[in-house]
Amino acid sequence: MRQFLISQTVSGNEPLRIEGKDYHYLRNVLRLRRGDTFLGRDASGQLYQLRIDGEKKGTLIVRGEAYTAENDYREGSPEAYRITLFQCLPKGRKMDLIIRQATELGVHKIVPAISDFTETRLNGKESQRTARWQRIIREASQQCGSRRLPRIMPCVSLANIAELADDHLGIVFHPDAAPTGGLPSKNLHGLLASARPDIDLFVGPEGGFSPGELKHLVMMGCHSVSLGDTVLRVETAALAALSAVNVILKENRFWTAG
């Protein structure tokens, strides 16, 4: 369900004024006119049915009513959880695709991370990259109709993360059933059967995690999980991890071992 993201908060029947790039998008790209309606989510996260009441010199005047067809978050659904993706920076623009896919899958936060095998460095351009990633999130959210607008967090080094936050479930994904160092692999269904609301997922760069990093992540409190017998590309691994977690959370109440 496509939606338009509003930077303001809808208040009662007060009109909203939409200008600048948003005006251009609605007026010249979507070709909306007075009397047309569209779905928009405001800064509070509420979805509205918006109607264009008028136009004045590059400004659209719109009013909105709450979109009652949208259900509230349900306990036990993926939306009831806050998933943070710790993604070790891959080469080139692969992070752009990962961020777009993570937005479509309803992730709560994205944390770019530096690991032993990370080849990409920010080189003082973190603000530029963050601005581009925020544009990608906005575009993806408007296209897919996600209830959440993920937050891009400052880049961190895995080595500087001492432990998981209290009450967080940490899961590190790797290609082997028994990673180097004898660390046991866990069952994803079992981990998510009674998952805490906050779930932290760790995905490595090209080359995966080093043996020392795997030990460090497990000592932090993470559980190691395999994504299968094949070695996945980094952008595929992130998509597979988030998709698997989402499906299990969605079907948790109905899944049985038999």
Low-confidence stretches: 72-76, 177-183
Order of helices and strands: EEHEEEEHEHEEEHEHEH
Compute the CA-based radius of gyration: 21 Å
Shape: elongated
Compute the number of strand runs: 12
- The pLDDT mean sits at 82
Helical content band: 25-40%
Query: What CATH architecture of the largest domain would you give?
Result: 3-Layer(aba) Sandwich
CATH class of the largest domain: Alpha Beta
CATH fold node name of the largest domain = Alpha/beta knot
- How much of the sequence lies in strands comes to 15-25%
Q: Major beta sheet, specifics?
A: 7 strands, parallel
Structural class: alpha/beta
The helix count comes to 6
Indicate how many domains the architecture comprises: 2
